[in-house]
Amino acid sequence: MKKITSTSLVLLSIFGFLITVQAQESFQKINGEGYRFNETKKPCLTLEQRENIKIALKESLNLLKQENKLAFKETNKAGGHVLFDWPIQQAAGFSYNDTWAISGYVDHNTAYPNQLQDYNCGTQTYDTTSGYNHQGVDIYLWPFWWKQMDDNQTEIIAAASGQIIAKGDGQFDRSCGFNSNQWNAVYVQHSDGSVAWYGHMKNGSVTTKNVGDMVTTGEVLGTVGSSGNSTGPHLHFEVYTNASYTQLVDPYYGTCNSLNGDSWWLNQNPYSNPSINAALTHSDNPVVFSNCPDQETTFESTNFELGDTIYLTAFLRDQVAGNNVSVQILRPDNSVFYNTSFNATSTGSLWYYYWYFNSFDVIGEWKWVVNFQGESITHLFNIQTLSIDENELQAVSIYPNPAKDYINISSSNPITKAQLIDIQGKRIKTIQNVSEGIRKMSLGDLSNGMYFLSLDSDSNQKKTFKIIKE
Fold first, then answer.
1. What does the pLDDT look like over 426-439, one tens digit per residue?
2. Using the 8-state DSSP alphabet, how is residue 436 labeled?
3. Selection from 377, 370, 369, 390 nearest residue 304 by Cα
C-alpha cells in the first residue's frame, strides 16, 4: 500500500545548496512472521548415544578417582542442591538486546507420542514416536542463528562451578536434522554431585581446559552450535542429580514438575519471558530464515544516505496474541517521523516485524524505537548527504553536462549500476547491466533541473556527479 502524507516544509542542505522540500512518507510495510524451531521434533540424542555418554562419563569419573583427581567424592550431599545461573551470554563486542529464546522444556508426561506436559503444565516440549521424552532445556539463538554461530556471538557458560568430567570436540557443527552424528559437549559435576550436560557446541569452540580441571560460574565453556542431532544452533542443557544418571532434573519449578520440589535456578525466568531481542536497521530486506545451514544475509547498517530505502526491524521473543507492539521513528530533533501501535494476532516463541521507507527528510542521527511488554529499545542510525567522493571511481566521466536527452558514461571500469536521484534525495531511475556495463542513461522523460547521477562499478567503487537537465 502506498501512502502519501504532506507535512510542514523542511529545510535541508545537499552539497551546500539550501533546498526547500515537502516531506513524503511512501511505501511503508508491516510484516509479522513467526517460526517454530525444531518443528519436526528431532531428539538431541538417540537413546543409544545417551546411554553411551552415561557409560563414558562413569568411566571418566572412575579414572579421575583412581588418579586422586576427583574433586567431589560424595553425591547427594545434605544441605541442598546447586543453583544455576543462566547458561548462555552474549559475547563482548556485540550489541543485541538479547540473543536467545526457548523452544522446549523437559517433558514430564512419560507417555507418547504427543502426550506433552512441561513444568508449567503447558506443552512447550516434545516427545517422539520412538518413546523419547525431551530430557533437557533447548535454548536457541534469535535472531540470525547461523550468523550468530559463525560470528561466535553467543557463548555457553558454566551455570554453576564444578569440575569438567568429560568433553568432546571436533564434530561437524552445521546439522539440519536427525542424524547419527556425535555432538560437541562439556560435562560438569558440581559440589552436590549433580552433573550438567552442555550439548551441540560449535566445532573448535570447546574450552581448552582438560578433564579434571575446575570451572567457575560464568566461565566460557564454548559457543552455541548445531553439532549432533540438531535442526539449528542451540544449547541443550541437561541435568542429573548424581553420576549414576538415574534421576533427571528439570531445573524449573512449577505445578507440573514432580521431580524436584523447588527451582534449581538462582533466578528462575518466567514461563512467558517476552523481550525485544533486537531493534535493527538494514540497507535491504534481511534474510531472516535462510536455507539450513546457510548463513543469513542481514544487511545490517546504521549509516545511510538521503533517498536510501531503509528497512527497520523488531525481533521479539515470547509474543502472545493480544500483546501490544508500538514503534516510532524519530528525527534528529526528536520530532516524530512515523508512529504506529498494534496488537499481535499470533503467539510464538519468536516473531519479527519490519517496515521500510525511502522518504527520510533530514540528515543527522535518527532513532528507531520499539516498545513491547514494558520494554523499550532505541536503535540509532545516521542519514548523511549524498557523497561524491566516497570510495571514488577513477577515470570516469560523463558528457554532455548540462544535458538534454541523455548522458554518456565513460569509465575504465565497467559501470554496473546507475541511479538518478533528485534534489530531495529520492531515487527516480535505476538501470543495471552487470555483463557489459552501462554507457548511457536517458533523460528525456525528466523535468528540467538539477539531479545527481550515482555510478557503481563491478569493483564495488562508486562516484556521484551533479548534472543539469535542460
1. 778 888 876 778 88
2. T
3. 390
